[in-house]
Amino acid sequence: MSSALRRFVPAAISGVLGVLVACSSDDATTSTPPLDAGTPDATSSTSSSSGGSTSSSASSSSGSSGTVDAGPDADASVVPAGPLTVTSPAFAAGGAIPAQHTCEGANLSPSLTWTGAPASAASFAVVVRDLSLAGSGNYHWVIWDIPANVSTLAEGVVKDAAPAVPAGAKQTYWSFGASYGWSGPCPPPADAAHQYRFEVLALPMAAAPVAANETSPTAADTVLQANAIARGSLTGSFER
């Protein structure tokens, strides 16, 4: 073999080996992308998971914050107003109701005054019941739609479905006959003293949703009690 050939063969072999190495390197490079392609997916998944977690956390945090913000408002909306204070110049709390306000006298409604109404009160109602009689048929007076600027009823409110004073007020029958407005205590003569509760209700509307021309004191009182936002009462007694 000539010296030239001896030089050519190693060079050729070296060249072939170089090509094979290069091809091997290209194959390795070609096989790498799927692995790299998987990495972004994992990263994307991680990012999505992280993003989702962040979003969920933010949403949860926001929701939690919203709940905290809503809490005080909700609490404030259900805080009941303090009780009204109800008094009468005719009798003290627990005292005897004078005969002039009963069937033994002129049968006039007694004067009543109330204080402590909430600022949201738009009207008032007065409900008088005989607590010594069981059941619902024990009403002596139901008057409602008393204007918000009124805090005293004078003695002797006119016995009409819509008395002129207080303006706009309405009354039902009492439980013992077809007579509008006040009808005073009149217990059986043999009974011990009956207890009468004068309850004042504050309502958030100027016109209570009582049915038009309602004559039933029970029906009217059911509506008034359901809508009351504050109340107070005065109790007196009477026996014959």
Report on this model:
With 240 residues, the chain is α+β, with helices and mostly antiparallel strands. The chain has 2 domains: 1-79; 85-238, Phosphatidylethanolamine-binding Protein (Alpha-Beta Complex). The chain has helices spanning 3-78, 217-227, and strands at residues 85-87, 112-115, 123-130, 139-147, 152-153, 170-171, 173-174, 177-180, 194-203, 230-238. The strands form 3 sheets. Strands 6-4-3-9-10 form a 5-stranded antiparallel β-sheet, covered by helices on one side. The longest helix has 76 residues, at 3-78.
CATH architecture of the largest domain: Alpha-Beta Complex
Given this structure, which CATH class of the largest domain is correct? Answer: Alpha Beta
Q: How far is the first residue's CA from the last residue's CA?
A: 154 Å
Cα-atom Rg, whole angstroms? 44 Å
Mean pLDDT across all amino acids: 78
> Which structural class matches the secondary elements?
alpha+beta
Helix content: 25-40%
SSE topology string: HEEEEEEEEEHE
Biggest beta sheet summary: 5 strands, antiparallel
Strand content: 15-25%
Number of helices: 2
As for the number of domains, it is 2
Spatial strand order of the main sheet: 6-4-3-9-10
Number of strands: 10
Quick synopsis:
With 240 residues, the chain is an alpha+beta fold.
Using brief descriptors, characterize the structure shown:
single chain, Phosphatidylethanolamine-binding Protein, 2 domains, 5-stranded antiparallel beta sheet, 3-stranded antiparallel beta sheet, 10 strands, 36% helix, globular, disordered N terminus
